[in-house]
Write a structure and sequence with these properties.
- The protein has 376 residues and is α/β, with parallel strands linked by helices.
- Helix content is 27%, strand content 16%.
- It contains nine helices and twelve strands.
- The protein has helices at residues 3-16, 37-44, 46-54, 91-101, 117-129, 214-218, 221-228, 233-245, 357-375; strands at residues 29-33, 58-62, 74-80, 105-109, 136-144, 155-156, 172-177, 180-185, 194-201, 207-211, 343-344, 348-349.
- The strands form three sheets. The protein has an eight-stranded mixed sheet, sandwiched between helices. The chain has a two-stranded antiparallel ribbon with strand order 5-7. Strands 11-12 form a two-stranded antiparallel sheet.
- Helix 1 (3-16) packs across helix 4 (91-101) and helix 3 (46-54) packs across helix 8.
- The longest helix is centred in the C-terminal third of the chain and has 19 residues, at 357-375.
């Protein structure tokens, strides 16, 4: 594959996360990415792995991110303490777009430890490479519960991922902003509610889930300490773990706007759906694959603020004449440059509505030659 082909492939895969589609039914594999590999991280994820295997998952611990995540066999990718392999292509530019465009779930676990700043920086880099999710992993460590004596938070938000979940034990927390909140809590010494975990469901059907508490989520030493005082964290967190693996490929109406997720390009926002009116706001409100049509005079929008419809007297410019379609002249042309979107006749796209540029250039020359022949 040459450079041009590679660039085309990368662009297509990256753009695929933006294209509305239903989530696909994926395979039963789960990849856990931890830079220390199975030797260290494996024990931390023992309880999590056992729960998912009980649901039929095939779980593999990796210190790298394999290309197989883009093959359709991997349903869930968990990233905890990401390695330097995330700093280079094609992990972010190729594998992750392909994985998410097929409806995969990406779980990113931030670390509350101040000594793991590089891990959180890589989490933020991964988030920065994914368009239109809106989630931020913040920088400040706000809770430390190393002795497991703090009461769990019960501020669980309604979501398919939190079905059956009633409480969450926090180890060392970093707050999360944006997305749809899953678990909220009150930071130590504070009075304002913050978010510990959130989800964003992409137009592709893929999901990005971020938790700002690596220890509280996966277990390891923190769970051992809790177990020593009679607190079974895996049992408390199991419902969310099961929901993460659950097949969500069936279309649902997550925002109750009357449109299921197989046609609704943002099933978390009831104002966005195929029946909505397009607004000039940088969002594809009506899910037709085009953003802000009606704002640039090359569209089929109508109204007092649009000058390329059939109504006269609503000009938003001062143009008149043959090439202007918002004057009183009955001509087929618009006053914009998007000729292939011209609503000529029945409104269908007509590429030939305007003479080709080369023809306009040749016609005067032909007239001049004819004039010279007549004179001779």
């Amino acid at each position: 594959m040459n450079k041009v082909q590679t660039l085309i492939a990368l662009s297509a895969l990256a753009a695929s996360t933006l294209a509305p589609s239903a989530a696909e039914a994926l395979g039963n594999r789960v990849i856990i990415n931890c830079r220390h590999g199975d030797l260290v991280c494996g024990e931390d994820f023992d309880a999590f792995t056992a729960v998912l295997e009980g649901e039929g998952a095939v779980v593999e611990m990796r210190s790298d991110v394999p290309s197989i995540i883009g093959d359709g066999d991997v349903r869930l990718l968990v990233v905890s303490l990401p390695s330097s392999s995330w700093d280079t292509n094609p992990t972010i530019t190729l594998y992750i777009p392909s994985f998410l465009s097929q409806g995969g779930k990406l779980l990113l676990l931030g670390d509350g430890e101040t000594g793991e700043a590089d891990s959180n920086a890589r989490i933020r880099s991964i988030l920065g490479s994914i368009p239109d999710h809106g989630i931020t992993l913040n920088a400040e460590q706000v809770n430390v519960n190393g002795s497991c004596t703090d009461a769990p938070t019960t501020d669980i938000q309604g979501d398919p991922l939190t079905a059956g979940l009633s409480s969450w034990y926090i180890g060392q927390a970093t707050t999360v902003s944006g997305g749809d909140a899953l678990v909220n809590f009150t930071p130590d010494g504070g009075s304002t509610t913050a978010t510990l975990g959130a989800v964003s469901r992409l137009q592709s059907g893929g999901e990005v889930i971020v938790f700002g508490d690596n220890e509280g989520f996966l277990g390891g030493l923190f769970h051992d300490v809790c177990d020593g005082i009679g607190t079974d964290i895996p049992a408390a967190h199991e419902a969310l773990w099961v929901n993460l693996y659950a097949d969500t490929s069936a279309a649902v109406d997550g925002d109750n706007d009357g449109y299921d997720s197989d046609v609704d390009c943002n099933d978390n926002n009831p104002a966005v759906n195929p029946g909505a009116d397009e607004e000039c706001n940088g969002v594809d409100d009506n899910c037709d694959g085009t953003i802000d049509e009606g704002c640039g005079d090359d569209d089929d929008a109508t109204g007092d603020d649009d000058d390329d419809d059939a109504t006269t007297g609503d000009d938003d410019d001062d143009a008149t004449g043959l090439l202007d379609d918002d004057d009183a002249t009955d001509d087929p042309f618009r006053d914009d440059s998007e000729w292939n979107s011209c609503a000529c006749g029945g409104g269908e796209a007509v590429a030939s509505a305007r003479p080709a540029g080369w023809l306009l250039a040749v016609l005067p020359l032909g007239g001049l030659l004819g004039w010279r022949r007549r004179r001779t």
